[in-house]
Amino acid sequence: MVDKPVNPPYFDGLFERLAKHDASTVAAFSRHVHWGYWKDPSQATCSPEDYGTAAENLCRVVCDAAPIRDGMRIVDVGCGFGGTLASLNDRYSGLQLVGVNIDPRQLERAAELVRPKHGNSIEFVHADAARIPLPDKCFDVVLAVECVFHFDRPRFFAETERLLDQGGTLTLSDFVPSERSLEYLDKIDLSANEAIRWSYGEIDLSYSISRYQELAKAHGLVLRESIDITENTLPTYEFLYASTADWTDTWHVELFTRATRLLEKGSRNKMIGYEVLRFVCS
């Protein structure tokens, strides 16, 4: 059974612009729909092409933290347009790659864009992150690039424990609140905010490092590494604001800008960090 997708309306507009082959949208979002990473943020131009490169760089930061090697069995949960799998397919050989997503539209686009090479195999699975129809202990790596805040995390971690072979790793990127900001975030429901809901859907940003450690322990995992890359992602905001310049619906521009400013404020005030976390199956 697959739950009904709960994608934010923003995605509808993105699909429409991609279908029209809008040059800026294709340059920025043809493979990835997540934040960008700039090794030197001061050099960011925030053009669509620059953003597309930065999004690929973020994907590589996550995969390199995993780390990935030739011949591995890898499942990318919340695989989007298949950008992470495409990147791995380009860089490694002999991989068994599986992409999981709850939105059939995203899977359809991924299947069209990603074709196996270098002796790799690629499969796409329509499923909820909490109920993945794949065998037990059949993967070396589980990836979740900027999507876990949409999941029921305890159920996702239970699935990860089931899927990973001994010594396997879960590597994800997420917006992680500081311990001092938890009380404030616990009191508010960001998903109840109209702007957030329209732009980013139902999100849960209440998992600090300590809460992730507790969650991991309850599911046979140990947090081995956390990498704070907040500063490297900050140019994302400038690009996202500029990307609405040709939107025709001014109310949608207002909603998206308001929601994105909330995330930017939290990031710049160090209430929320953008982190890459690596867990090991004990």
What this model shows, in words?
A 7-stranded mixed sheet has the order 3-2-1-4-5-7-6, with helices on both faces. Helix 2 (23-29) runs parallel beside helix 3, helix 3 (48-65) packs across helix 4 and helix 8 (194-200) packs across helix 12 (250-268). Strand 1 (73-77), helix 4 and strand 2 (96-101) form a beta-alpha-beta unit. The chain starts with 9 loop residues before the first helix and ends with a strand. It has a single domain, classed as 3-Layer(aba) Sandwich (Rossmann fold), CATH 3.40.50.150. It is built from 12 helices and 7 strands. With 282 residues, the chain is an alpha/beta fold. The model has no long low-confidence stretch (mean pLDDT 94). This is Class I SAM-dependent methyltransferase. Keywords: Methyltransferase, S-adenosyl-L-methionine, Transferase. Residues 58-268 form the Polyketide synthase-like methyltransferase domain. One of its GO terms (biological process) is methylation. One of its GO terms (molecular function) is methyltransferase activity.
Quick recap:
By secondary structure, the chain is of the alpha/beta class. The chain has helices spanning 10-19, 23-29, 48-65, 83-91, 104-113, 153-163, 182-187, 194-200, 209-218, 230-233, 235-242, 250-268, and strands at residues 73-77, 96-101, 121-126, 139-145, 164-177, 221-228, 272-281. The protein has a seven-stranded mixed beta sheet with strand order 3-2-1-4-5-7-6, with helices on both faces.
